[in-house]
Design goal:
This protein has 21 helices and 24 strands. The protein has about 625 residues and is an alpha+beta fold. Strands 2-5-6-11-14-10-9 form a 7-stranded mixed β-sheet. A 5-stranded mixed β-sheet has the order 20-19-18-21-22, sandwiched between helices. Helix 7 packs across helix 8 and helix 14 packs antiparallel against helix 15. About 5% of the residues have low confidence.
Length: about 625
Amino acid sequence: MAITKTDFINYTRCKRYAALEEIKREKLDADISYQTYKEQELKENLSEIVSSMYELNEETNEETDLVEKVDRQLEAMMDYYKLVEIEAGRIATKTFGGNSIYAEKTKDQECFDFSMHGIRYLCYVDIYNESEEEINIIEVKATTTSKYLKTFGHPKSDKFPIWLKKDNVYYLKGEVDGYDIDAEMPLKKYNEFRAKMFNRFDDVGKYIYDLAIQRYFIEHEYRSTHTEEKLKKFHYYLAVLNAEYIFDGTYEGSVPIYNPDSEGNELITFFDMTKVTEEYQPFVDADREKLERDLNELDASSCPLSVSCGYKKRSECKYFAPLCGSKIPKKNSSLNYIHNGFGFLREDGTRIKGLDLINEGYINMLDIPEEWITKNYHHIQRESLAFDKVYVDKEKIAAGLKQLQYPIYHLDFETMPCPVPRFRGEWPYIQSPFEFSLHIERAPGECDKDEDNIVFLAKTHQDEREDMIKLMLQYMNPNEGTLFAQNVAFEKGRIKELASMFPEYRTDLMKLYDRGFDLLWLVNTNSKMYEELGFDEERAKTFNFYDKRLSGSFSIKKTLPVFSDLSYDNLVVKNGTEAIVEYANYEKMSKEEFDLKYQALIIYCKQDTWAMVEILNALRELVKDLSKNGENVVMFT
């Protein structure tokens, strides 16, 4: 087979990958069918959609069940990915003029290939746009502009992006003649962000590296055919979803029509990467040389773990979990110390963090030398694991419980983070709610699993959001009680978005928003709240509860088994990923399957809120015997 663009990216991760694939040199100059290529690329692109669905979630260090790697989720996103490609092709023609070949025009898809040292390199182009003046190579990525439009500025001044937008195309300000970047931001900041584009493993740089590989293949084809003069016409762009685009709700039948929004924004926008990909070429060439060496040597011996492994990312190497990273324990590894992005300071003054800990043999939590542990909460984690003890700050938990006002509205949304907006007022990857469960606890411990539960679940892919709002406000009094959730920022975010899209309900929805309280404030902490309640700074920022079973995480997956026997194992829908899949597949189901999955979605979401009721009750029991002798921060077996 040939080395495709995706192959190139994977084989150049490390020297081991090619050997593990058992590539045979004689196969590397063979043909590859368009269908095979597209299957390979499609898997990568669908994976990118799923990644973006969660990168734009509420910022949290906690794990979430939405990052489960489920192939059915990729399949469920297929139609949306195709729509992104089609819209990108349509808007590319509108933006650049000329003629575009893209998406469904597979038989005419532009292919570029060349052979070197007995290996054939090959790529197809997402959008090939040609006019008399120029040829535009456009790579479609189902991410958004948010990754690129970071802003910087001088101290105490406004902040500006490093890009200048003109006619739906973003240009680096440093490439715009006469642009005074230093008037807006320190040139150092501009250059620092620009440098990220040359880190192929960074969230910004990985897309550009992909495009730079395409450019490398294209230029080598033209050079091999002695037509490199034509390359002067080539320009290179990324096409991404516009995070600022707001859908106006225009449909033809039930099909959304993505006209420019009221601010003139298109659904798809473009980044000019011509200069950057040019500068990338020596790096790509070095990677190609490395790839050829690795193919010749086929050295399958282990090599140090690094950022190239893609650990805990959608881009994680397929060999990491079963082989290279298999020595990392699933619980209480050295990587499970809480808030430890900066790692540990060693005696010699150097820092060690992340996968370097594993490389140097610090694999388990207790492998970390005690003298490296400087934070109180790390001491607690270590002692809890070493001596099988549970840490509880009863006084803090009790103080937190006193802040709850009744009734407590235990609320959980299930959402569809669709790449393209589906309903009026939405934007790309908005977390669009299609279901909620509500358990109402009218006094401490007074909540029945069935009688005090209300569930809304959309029956179609039509816009049922207003019906959802009406049902919420029917049972949730905006003037009393507590809006309660685990990671309440997520629920509050959805409520705020609904308030902006349905202004007639804004007042009541924002009153609910203001009543938010997070379950994690009781189990983990909320330093600001506890300082206001009179606790000193160190105690306020230390978590309230820790059990070795948490393994450094306060996610619902970890906390629930500690406080309750409630399990998701016997459910048809077991997590948020599966909920998205079933909802996304509504229209592909038979009536019988729909009825089964509809009930399964109700049961799953209901369990999410009942889990919060059970954890809250367990916390009340935990502090019921609040000591009078001052021993309210305890470690017990």
